[in-house]
Specification:
six-stranded parallel beta sheet; 20 strands; about 40% helix; binds adenosine-5'-diphosphate; binds magnesium ion
């Protein structure tokens, strides 16, 4: 009989219509689904503890006979107690809210129980009251010892349903064919796929489990890496990029006209960028550098290089404010070089006349550099000769979106992604695996670290008195709040929205000081006006939501107060903090939090102790996962079943290297195609581009 993994799970012995239905709620429909429903954890049931040896807080496996079964209700809890005895001694077993067991348990019932020994708080008796699992045994039943899988489940399905069904499936299943090249398996010293899938469910030992996890994690990571490399290879082999000449007069003029010397990292990064642009391959480069590390100048140099080679350049920003700021900086520095810079903002695109004018200037090649927001992606925008695209602070852009941007040009443009969000190495190896990475670690000279402190709501008054003193000395301050207005459901959560805080501050302690409020729901013209007035020093205190999160540069602002700081992610707090400390004066970031919950507080304390954005980002990622970190599900990471990009960093790097070697060395197209199919099988349409290729 032919065995087909795509057949219904009902073909598995032990799964009938009712269980199949219950499995459906876990997205398990086929035998393949069941096979790859890997255990969530394991229970060590290799050794039975003699009852007399059970110690407090120890996880134990006990086997004995029951007596003294009793049942009572206390404080809304239904409590079932019994005594379990073996040859060595006795112990109490306690079940909560499982009244139905009364019918199943009797004096003399033979029972195996796995759980933790605790002291019952109300009776002071030693008891197994944290029960992981238990099984009623037949009088002569042989106890099967081993490492037992624990599966993600629902109330309708207990663990033994999974254990039995998967055991039956594995028994009937022919060996799973290998998907990796034999040579790679040998070289990486990997377990066979068949052995790994069997062992992940029923490992014979910890070592075997580790081997099987490594194999399956390697597969997942290797396939992803191959996918990313294929994208890269495609863009290299199938599309030749533009070739720029060595740095010419314009670039050199700009370099000499800079009011400062480039830092070592800046020079190095621009040298790499220039090299990329001079090669025949399209540049795909990620430039990472903490806030204030001076990425803008790299962008400007690269754009000027594109211009002096006869191409246009575009720079895309997430906000209007940032687009405006870049536009001003660029015009100031580049008009002397005869370079024409244009701004494509919402204001421009709203007016039909202005819009058509700038669209014409773009398509006619009159503008050399265009700076704008997402407006750049609109349909009417067609460049005459777009040679370089830079996205600033757009780390939420996925692989596919980057590809879409590239389609704006008749030639294959070079691309730079710039971000201050410190993207942990694990992420650059996955989501950004199609990009080369440059790091700017060095800060321009003279920067002082921002002094950060965490305060409770009780110190609020003192905090604002301090802010006032700073303002009176000529500085400016930001107050950042998580929400604009209070929604019904948040009234109970003590959230002080920006609006309220603004009212409170501007009427109270800052009554005689020019204050303003800025938030994301305002019209962009209004936002721009306020930002401009703040930058010009007219407004002293700016209450805002996170609209100021990225890129804006006001060196005279030296204090930032963040209200309800526990509401923000660490990376976000670090970004916000980067808005101050951009001048020569000492700067402060004060985090106000009314949450004293251990975790929240510990998280914020980390802000005090480190200025390292990477460390904070890793922490964020650990706490909140990649989805949260990158916003919704835009991170574009395929769901991983076994691999964990933190725990398996080592395997990730191995997989990365292996994929690199494999893709560059292998000319076997059949093999690529099979890999693609495996990718599609394992990851659905996440790699659609590859499947379509
Ligand atoms: P970010 O990397 O956050 O985008 P910017 O490019 O906005 O940083 O630079 C922050 C500030 O540092 C700007 O005012 C810029 O003029 C200044 N700056 C950049 N590079 C240098 C340098 N090498 N020496 C001194 N100041 C610099
Ligand atoms: Mg910037």
């Amino acid at each position: 009989m032919k065995f087909n993994f795509e057949d219904s799970v009902m073909y598995v012995k032990g799964v009938g219509p009712a269980r199949a239905k219950a499995l459906e709620s876990l997205n398990i429909r086929t035998m393949y689904d069941l096979l790859t429903h890997y255990p969530r954890s394991y229970e060590d049931q290799r050794n039975i503890t003699p009852i007399a040896h059970a110690r407090i807080d120890e996880q134990v496996v006990l086997v004995g006979r029951l007596s003294n079964i009793s049942f009572h209700t206390a404080r809304n809890l239904k409590i079932l107690n019994a005594i379990l005895s073996d040859a060595s001694g006795s112990i109490q077993i306690t079940w909560f809210n499982q009244e139905y067991l009364l019918k199943k348990l009797h004096d003399g019932t033979r029972l195996m129980v796995i759980g933790k020994v605790k002291v019952n708080s109300w009776s002071g008796v030693l008891s197994v009251n944290q029960i992981n699992s238990f099984a009623i045994l037949e009088p002569n039943e042989e106890i099967s010892l081993g490492i037992k899988p624990v599966y993600a489940s629902t109330a309708a399905l207990n663990q033994s349903v999974f254990r039995v069904a998967i055991k039956n499936l594995l028994a009937k299943m022919p060996p799973i064919p290998e998907i990796l090249p034999a040579e790679l398996i040998r070289e990486m010293d990997l377990m066979s796929l068949d052995a790994a899938i069997r062992a992940i469910h029923f490992p014979a030992s910890e070592a075997e489990l580790a081997q099987s996890r490594r194999r399956l994690a390697f597969d997942e990571l290797f396939l992803i890496q191959c996918g990313l490399m294929l994208i890269k290879r495609q863009s290299r082999d199938e599309q030749l990029g533009i070739i720029c000449k060595k740095n010419g007069a314009l670039v050199n003029k700009l370099l000499t006209s800079l009011p400062f010397k480039l830092t070592g990292d800046q020079s190095k990064t621009f040298a790499t960028v220039a090299q990329d642009m001079e090669s025949k391959f399209p540049m795909r480069r990620l430039i990472q550098g903490d806030v204030g590390s001076g990425k803008t100048i790299i962008a400007m140099l690269a754009l000027v290089k594109a211009v002096e080679n006869g191409y246009q350049g575009a720079m895309m920003t997430p906000t209007e404010i940032l687009a405006n700021q870049h536009y001003e900086t660029f015009t100031k520095m580049l008009s002397g070089l005869g370079i024409k810079v244009g701004l494509l903002s919402a204001k421009v695109t709203r007016s039909k006349k202005l819009r058509e004018e700038i669209y014409n200037q773009i398509s006619g090649g009159e503008l050399d550099i265009v700076i704008g927001t997402h407006a750049l992606l609109q349909e009417g925008v067609n460049f005459a000769k777009l040679g370089l695209i830079i996205t600033d602070e757009q780390h939420r852009f996925g692989v596919a979106q980057r590809a879409a941007l590239g389609k704006k040009s008749a030639v294959v443009p070079d691309m730079i992604v710039m971000t201050a969000t410190p993207i942990p190495r694990t992420m650059t190896l996955t989501i950004y695996g199609d990009l080369d990475v440059s790091l700017i670690k060095e800060m321009p000279p003279g920067r002082k670290p921002v002094k950060t402190s965490v305060k409770t709501i009780r110190s609020r008054k003192t905090v604002y008195e301090f802010v006032k003193a700073e303002i009176e000395q000529g500085r400016q301050a930001y107050v950042v709040c998580p929400l604009i207005e209070r929604s019904e459901s948040e009234k109970l959560n003590y959230i002080d929205p920006a609006e309220e805080i603004y009212q409170q501050l501007s009427r109270g302690i800052f009554k005689n000081i020019p204050c303003a409020l800025i938030h994301g729901k305002m019209k962009s013209a209004d936002k721009d006006e306020i930002m401009t007035r703040f930058r010009d020093g007219e407004i002293k205190l700016l209450v805002s939501t996170t609209v100021i999160e990225v890129g804006v540069d006001v060196p005279n602002a030296t204090v930032m107060v963040i209200e309800n700081a526990e509401r923000f992610g660490l990376s976000q707090l670090h970004q916000l903090r980067g808005r101050v400390g951009r001048g020569s004066e000492k700067s402060y970031c004060i985090l106000i939090s009314n949450s004293n919950q251990g975790d929240a507080r510990a998280r914020l304390d980390l802000m005090e102790s480190t200025a390292d954005g990477f460390e904070l980002a890793e922490e964020d990622l650990k706490l909140r996962g990649p989805g949260e970190f990158f916003g919704e599900s835009q991170h574009g990471l395929p769901d991983l079943k076994v691999a964990n990009v933190f725990r398996d960093l080592h395997t990730l790097i191995e997989a990365r290297n292996a994929a690199e070697k494999f893709i560059t060395n292998s000319a076997d197209l059949d093999y690529f195609n099979r890999l693609r199919q495996n990718l599609a099988l394992a990851y659905g349409d996440k790699f659609k581009q590859i499947n379509e290729a």
